[in-house]
Design goal:
By secondary structure, the chain is an alpha/beta fold. The chain has a domain at 2-183 and 211-242: NAD(P)-binding Rossmann-like Domain (Rossmann fold, 3-Layer(aba) Sandwich). It has helices at residues 11-23, 36-41, 91-111, 142-145, 149-168, 192-198, 215-227, 244-255, 266-278, 289-295, 306-310, 317-331, 333-339; strands spanning 2-6, 28-33, 51-55, 75-78, 114-118, 172-176, 179-181, 204-205, 209-214, 234-236, 240-243, 262-263. A seven-stranded parallel beta sheet has the order 3-2-1-4-5-6-10, sandwiched between helices. Strand 1 (2-6), helix 1 (11-23) and strand 2 (28-33) form a beta-alpha-beta unit. Helix 8 packs across helix 12 (317-331). It is globular, with a radius of gyration of 20 Å.
C-alpha cells in the first residue's frame, strides 16, 4: 500500500505525515518534493521514519510513467496549493492549483486509486453575516469570489477535477476545511497574523469574520477518509467561526493582554490600498486590495456528515490557539528575539488569513 502525498513539505503535509507515523500505519508514505535535499534539511522530517520521497511537482509529474521503484499507488492525498491573494501575478497559482490538480486526477486514473483533494471552504462559504454557513449541498459562491484569484482557482479546480474524474472513472473526494491553525507551522504562514499580534505589530483589523479548525483534527479526518469503505464525494471540516475582533480577543486573553488594535472601516482601508498599489505599493503596511475585499466577508461552514461518518470534531478554539501560541513562542526566531528585548520593527496591518 503506497500513498502519494503532495504538499508534503507544508504545514498540512507535516501533520498528515506525523499522524500516519503516530498511528503506526502499515502503508508506505511517498512524499512528492521539489528537492530531496530540502526535504532532508528540515529537522521534523527526520523524526518521521519510513517516508520515501519522489522528486517532482504536481504539474511536472508524468502521470503515465513513474519510476519503477514507486510501484502501484493505492491512494493520493493532494494537499499542494499556492495561496496568492492578489489579482497581480496570479498566473502561476492558477497553473498549480488547477492544472496540477488535473494532473493528479490523471495519475489516480493510471493507478486506479482513490484521490483526496483538500480544497477550501471558501469555494462555497463566503457570506455577508456571521450567521450564514454552507454545508456539503451548497452551490459554489462563484460570482462572489470571481475577483479573488485564490478562491476562483479553487472553484475552477474542483469543477474541472470532478468532470475529469467522472470521465476517467476516478474516485475523487473533496475535503473543505477553513483556516488551519495549530502547532508546527514551520513556514509561519497560516499563523502569520498571530505572529504579528504577538510581536505587537497588529495596529488595525478590518470588519469581517474568521473561521479556523485545528490542523491535528483535520489531518486525522483526511486519513479517515482515505481508509473509509464508502466515503461521500464531499466533506466539510468546520471549526470555530467568529468575528475577526473576537478571534484576536481570544489570542489576547491567551497571552494576558488587553486588546490594543483599532477596527478600520473596510471601504476606507480599501481606498487607501488601491491608491497605494497605484503608487507602486510604497506603503508596505497596507495589504493588497483583494485582502481587504475578503476582509469584509464571513466564512461560515458546517457539515451534514463529518461528525457521524468520520468522527470529526475540531477541538475547542482556545485549546488550538493556546497550543499554536506556545509552539510559536518556542520556535519563531523573531519571537525569541522579542523575548530577549530586541528593537521593534515597522508596523504592519493584519494581512488576510483565509481558508
Amino acid at each position: 500500500m503506497t500513498v502519494l502525498i503532495t504538499g508534503a513539505t507544508g504545514f498540512l503535509g507535516r501533520h498528515v505525515l506525523q499522524t500516519m507515523a503516530a498511528a503506526g500505519s502499515a502503508g508506505r508514505a511517498l512524499a512528492l518534493v521539489r528537492k530531496r535535499s530540502e526535504w532532508e534539511a528540515m529537522a521534523w522530517t527526520q523524526e518521521l521514519g519510513g517516508v520515501d520521497t519522489l522528486e517532482g511537482t504536481v504539474t511536472g509529474l508524468d502521470s503515465s510513467h513513474l519510476p519503477e521503484s514507486v510501484g502501484r499507488l493505492t491512494g493520493i492525498l493532494h494537499l499542494a496549493a499556492v495561496v496568492h491573494h492578489s489579482r497581480r501575478g496570479a498566473e502561476a497559482m492558477w497553473q498549480t492549483n488547477v492544472e496540477g490538480t488535473l494532473n493528479m486526477v490523471r495519475l489516480a486514473a493510471a493507478h486506479r486509486c482513490r484521490m483526496i483533494f483538500v480544497s477550501t471552504s471558501g469555494v462555497v462559504g463566503s457570506f455577508d453575516t456571521l450567521a450564514e454557513a454552507a454545508d456539503e449541498e451548497a452551490p459554489f459562491c462563484e460570482a462572489r469570489v470571481s475577483r479573488w484569484p485564490y478562491y476562483a482557482s479553487k472553484v475552477a479546480a474542483e469543477k474541472a477535477a470532478r468532470a475529469l474524474a467522472n470521465d476517467l472513472g476516478v474516485e475523487l473526494i473533496f475535503l473543505r476545511p477553513p483556516v488551519l491553525l495549530g502547532p508546527g507551522d514551520h513556514r509561519f504562514r497560516s499563523s502569520s497574523n498571530i505572529i504579528r499580534y504577538l510581536r505587537r505589530r497588529l495596529p488595525v483589523v478590518f470588519p469581517g469574520g474568521m473561521h479556523f479548525a485545528d490542523i491535528r483534527d483535520v489531518s486525522q479526518a483526511i486519513l479517515t477518509v482515505l481508509d473509509h469503505p464508502s466515503p461521500r464525494p464531499i466533506y466539510h471540516l468546520p471549526g470555530a467561526a467568529s468575528e475577526l475582533d473576537t478571534f484576536f480577543r481570544w489570542i489576547a486573553q491567551a497571552v494576558g493582554r488587553e486588546p490594543d488594535w483599532r477596527t478600520v472601516p473596510s471601504r476606507l482601508a480599501w481606498g487607501a490600498a488601491v491608491l497605494n498599489q497605484w503608487l507602486g505599493s510604497t506603503l508596505s503596511f497596507l495589504p493588497d486590495p483583494v485582502v481587504i475585499e475578503m476582509g469584509s466577508s464571513y466564512w461560515g461552514l458546517k457539515s451534514l456528515y463529518a461528525a457521524e461518518e468520520l468522527g470529526y470534531q475540531s477541538r475547542p478554539p482556545q485549546e488550538t490557539l493556546t497550543d499554536t501560541i506556545a509552539w510559536l513562542q518556542a520556535e519563531h526566531p523573531q519571537l525569541k528575539v522579542l523575548a530577549a528585548g530586541s528593537p521593534s520593527t515597522p508596523l504592519t496591518t493584519a494581512a488576510d488569513q483565509r481558508p
